[in-house]
Design brief:
By secondary structure, the protein is mainly beta. The chain has two helices and 13 strands. The mean pLDDT is 91.
């Protein structure tokens, strides 16, 4: 399976307990993709899920390939992926990874660059490149007006003087 067929769903925050259980912080806390998964990828390592349970702000994940706290600790910070095909998406659901490469326009149709990446963290943001200019837009309903995946287009409504920086 090609890497683009894997969707990053979170990262390992730390070990939990002594038997290799992993505390995974999910990019979308309301997603149940990890609690339903049979197979996950921790970095490039394919793992069979033994148990996954949602807890406050995370998922506690047990996989066959990690059996002790030391091994779990070595994986701290590692990204966790699931196969795209294992996700159950509604017709109007959009995966953040699918936004990369989309053209960005203002509400009046003015071109505003291309989505070069998604920055995940406490607040997910679009990384928009327009020539040597970089803009970061939080992914919130107030700023993202329209998403057209088929048309590879995203319409945004930033404040009039939106901060930007020069790329090297």
């Amino acid at each position: 399976m090609a890497p683009q067929d894997r969707i990053e769903v979170g990262f390992i925050a730390r070990p939990h307990g002594l038997r290799g259980e992993l505390r995974v912080v999910c990019h979308n806390p309301s997603s149940d993709s990890l609690t339903r998964a049979e197979i996950v990828f921790i970095g490039d390592m394919r793992c069979r899920v033994v148990r996954a349970r949602a807890v406050s702000g995370a998922v506690l994940l047990t996989v066959d390939e990690v059996t002790n706290r030391d091994r779990a600790g070595e994986l701290k910070g590692t990204k966790v992926f699931v196969d795209r095909d294992s996700l159950q998406l509604d017709a109007d659901d959009v995966l953040l990874t699918d936004l990369v490469g989309c053209a960005v326009e203002l509400e009046d149709g003015t071109a505003w660059g291309t989505i070069a990446a998604i920055e995940t963290g406490a607040q997910n943001r679009l990384v928009i490149h327009d020539g040597n200019i970089e803009r970061l837009i939080p992914i919130v309903d107030e700023l993202i007006i329209e998403v057209d995946i088929e048309g590879q287009r995203v319409v945004v409504a930033p404040a009039e003087e939106w901060p930007e920086s020069r790329r090297k």
